What we know:
The relative contact order is 0.11. The protein has helices at 46-55, 78-89, 104-107, 125-132, 146-150, 194-197, 211-221, 227-242, 249-265, 273-285, 292-305, 327-339, and strands spanning 22-25, 28-31, 69-72, 93-97, 109-113, 119-123, 135-139, 161-164, 169-172, 178-184, 203-205. It folds into two domains: 22-205, 3-Layer(aba) Sandwich (Rossmann fold); 211-299. 37% of the residues lie in helices and 15% in strands. The protein contains twelve helices and eleven strands. Adenosine-5'-triphosphate binds at residues 41-45, 72, 74-80, 140, 182, 184, 209, 217, 220-221, 249-250, 253.
Amino acid sequence: MTVPPSSTDQSSPDDTPALPTHLEVDGVRLKLAKPHVGVARWIGQDEVLQQLLACWISLDQTDLPLTPRLVGAPGVGKTQLGIAAAMAHERPLFIYQCTADTRPEDLLVTPVLSQDGKIAYHASPLVTAMLVGGVCILDEGNRMNEKSWASLAPLFDNRRYVESIVAGITIDANPSFRAAVTMNQDESTFEIPDYIMSRLQPTLPVGFPNKQDEMAILQYHLPFAEPEMLAMTVEFLQRSHSLKLEFSPRDGINLLRYALKRISQDPKHPLSRDQAWQEALKHCLGEDAMDLEQMSQRRRRTLGGDAVPLGLADLFFDPDDPMHPDLDEVDDNEDEDADF
Ligand SMILES: Nc1ncnc2c1ncn2[C@@H]1O[C@H](COP(=O)(O)OP(=O)(O)OP(=O)(O)O)[C@@H](O)[C@H]1O
Ligand SMILES: [Mg+2]
């Protein structure tokens, strides 16, 4: 069953087509979520934008759209890409921020006690997108546990519906409904089960921008920044990308924003640009970021070190414990190394 986009309480901001605020599904009145507003431009890397838009094409009445995974380092632009693609697709956008606490009902329909003591049913941004035929970005999807993902299994195969246990209804997706999931690669995430992964295809990796694009991204977000400050930041980011360190455009934006604020603070004794930039680097990205080469070497050593097998003593002592029998041995070796 597909719900027609007709309902009560229509609001009509400026000239964008009005979206219903409520819809009824099988006799249950649902309050809908508000769409995301605001413009987001996607700069550079046109290929990945085209790949995402291709997933949402429907070639024939029987052809189903795909729900891709956008993967990449934190701050590389996955959410921005999703927002920009929804704008290019010209459908209303709804963003659902997934967290480790997300329960299945949060993803679908939540019962809320209203002022008159009755239960009101609130549709999530995902269900709202399903009903109005919008785009839903499930942001940072792998922060969500398996139970919540399981409730979406029928939505992302050819059934295209969800079942809300709390509201006691089955909700079909409008044929125009589209979705994408962004996923982070950090450690605070869940392993998503294979049967869900197989429904979230294809995987679209978002990489770091090249020099020219990185400059355009910083200029777009901080149009008032001086060329010298922009150039310093782009140099830094490009160097870190080439050393496989994960400093992102977001890091660059934050660091530059802070440096510019520090410079503007005291017009009589302004901080030198270089001083402000170094201070911002240290406070935004940490002391380690001040020497990228050393940071990269340390990172390589740590990654290599993880592969070293544990000895019997490691079961009883922390690696830094002075009682650790191998500690002297390690120190001796380091001394030997230093002599070369
Ligand atoms: N190609 C781009 N065009 C325009 N802005 C970009 C681009 N890439 C990154 N940005 C900007 O960089 C910042 C970080 O992007 P975004 O939040 O989309 O990253 P993310 O990959 O979703 O990060 P996380 O994994 O932490 O959620 C945002 O301010 C975004 O606008
Ligand atoms: Mg994001």
